[in-house]
Amino acid sequence: MRNAIVVVDDDPIIRMDIREMLEEGGYLVAGEAKNGEEAIELIARVKPDLAIMDIKMPVMNGIKASHIIRKLQQDTSVLLLTAYSQKELVKDAREAGVAAFLVKPVSEEDLLPAVEIALSQKEKMDSLKQDIKLLKQSIEERKSIEKAKGLVMQKHALSEEKAYAKMREVSMATRIPLSKLAADILQDGAEVLAGAGERKHG
After folding, report:
1. Sign of CA pseudo-dihedral 8, 13, 19, 21
2. How far is CA 118 from the centre of its chain?
3. Which domain of life is it from (predicted)?
4. What angle do CA 57, 60, 64 make, to 5 degrees?
5. Which of 135, 173, 184, 199 is 20 to 30 Å from the Cα of 118, by its Cα?
6. Cβ-contact 83, 57 below 8 angstroms
7. On the CB side of 97, how many CA atoms lie within 13 Å of its CA?
8. In 9-125, where do the E strands start and end?
C-alpha cells in the first residue's frame, strides 16, 4: 500500500509542484490545505502517514499546527518547509515533534529523500508502539496468571508449583490459552478447573 501524504502551503503553485513530485515518486497525495487550521481538519479526516507543511502561512502557521497535529494525530509525521533556515525555527520545529525540515525552493532531489526519512521514522515509532503494547499485554497476562494461581492454591490446598502445573495441564488438555484460563478463574473461581477437566473427559 502506498504511503498517503497531505500537502499544506498557502501558495497553490508550490502545492501543485510538490504534488507532482510526490506522485512521480510513487506516493499518494491524499489532500491539500492552504493553512494550519485546514491542515488540522484534513489530517483528522484522512489520517495520512505524512504532512508536508509550510511554516509561514496565514490563519495558523506550520509550527503551531504541527504541535496540535502531534497531539491529536500521533500517527502522522510532519515535514516542515520554510524559506528560512534560522536556528530558532529549527529549535521550534524539533519541539513541535517535526520529523524533518526542508528549506525552499524544494527540489525533487531534496524532497523525496526527506520524505523517506520522515516515513522511516514513523515506521520505527509504529513498531515501537506495537512492541510496548505487546509488552503491556504480556505483563497484564502474567499478573492475572499469578492471581489465578493464588486462588487455585487456596481452593485446592496446593503448593505454588503444583497449582501452576494443574493450570498448565488443564490449559493444554482443553486448548484454552493459559491467560484465558486465568481470566476465567478470576471471574468464576477456581472451580473452573474442575469444570474444564470434566469437559475434557466428557
Report:
1. negative
2. 15
3. Bacteria
4. 110
5. 135
6. no
7. 18
8. 28-33, 50-54, 77-82, 100-103
Using CB atoms within 10 Å of the CB of residue 190, give its burial: 0 to 12 exposed, 13 to 18 middle, 19+ buried: buried
The SS3 assignment for 110 reads helix
Burial of residue 77 (number of CB atoms within 10 Å: 0-12, 13-18, 19+): buried
pLDDT at 23 over 90: yes
pLDDT 10s digits, 83-136: 766 666 666 666 656 666 777 888 777 788 888 888 877 666 666 667 678 888
Quote the pLDDT of residue 122. Answer: 62
- Residue tagged 533556515 (cell numbers): 85
Q: Which helix (H) or strand (E) holds 98?
A: none
